[in-house]
Amino acid sequence: MSKVFPRAGRGRVLSGAAGVVVLGLLLWWLLPLGEEPPSGAVTLSTGTTSGVYYEYGSRLRNELAEDMPDLDVDLTASNGSQENVARVAAGQADFAIAAADAVETYEAQHTDATARLRGVARLYDDYVQLVVPRDSAVRSVADLKGRTVATGLARSGVRLIAERVLRAAGLDPAKDITAMAEGIDTGPEQLRQGRIDAFFWSGGVPTAGLQDLANRFTFRFVPIGPELVAKMHEQDDATGYYRATNMPESAYPTIQNGATVPTIAVSNLLITRADMDPRLTEWLTRTVIKSRDGIGRHVHSAQLVDLRTAIYTDPLPLHEGAKRYYKSVKP
User: Fold this and answer.
1) Average pLDDT in the 171-186 region?
2) Which residue of 47, 108, 234, 270 lies most exposed, with the fewest beta carbons within 10 A?
3) Can you tell me whether residue 125 is helix, strand or coil?
């Protein structure tokens, strides 16, 4: 005996159809790019283990393992952007995270780099953070004269920016301060113990190393105003990637007490070489974009990875594989 079902109203039909469309789009977004995921082994160069580069890279490796289970991703620590660019260019790493200014600086120093390096995605912005004890007499960058200052590890992006900031403030990094090669892994503790007067850091916010310091020591940020950024732009072409901004008040709530901090931002790029396999790079690019929310729940900076801005990897042209992915999802 047949049953008579109630006739669906127009609204219900449209709603059902919309659901099918949404489900179809979701499946399209998640479907693999080919019958079999790429396999093999690649090296991803990140940063110090206390920094955002390393944390982001660690979680991206987990996402890649889900999408490409037969791809072995070797995650390596480094001193930061300058070392990462050099590693990729020399074939010592296949992919790396690096700030745009470090990429431009490397290209200016190595005329053949433009032919070898490619961009995969613009990721998130780094914020320059100049940290001093709360009771310090240092109120401006110029006040660092005669003091002991951690300017970042050799071949790091921090070192590159710190020296440019100091010059913009009229200081000679080699003569006017006692420069210490400390990074985010050691700088906070050196500051807490009074062995240095200040340290520079450039990274996504919040950075775990500074969050940990905030739980044990009261510090504050020295503002880096737009007038210094304007002077930095006069130094060389790479400084054009710096822009004046404010570090959001939510970065370190217990330290900032609701106040923003004038500073500098520079974009981070995921980079590779021109000869990297296009199919593998296409898959990897897709994982970078679709894992934003998952990684972003743990690495706040990753929430800023966006399909609309990821294609802007200046000064590097997009890798062919990344280009294929972006074209495939273009409206």
Assistant:
1) 97
2) 234
3) strand
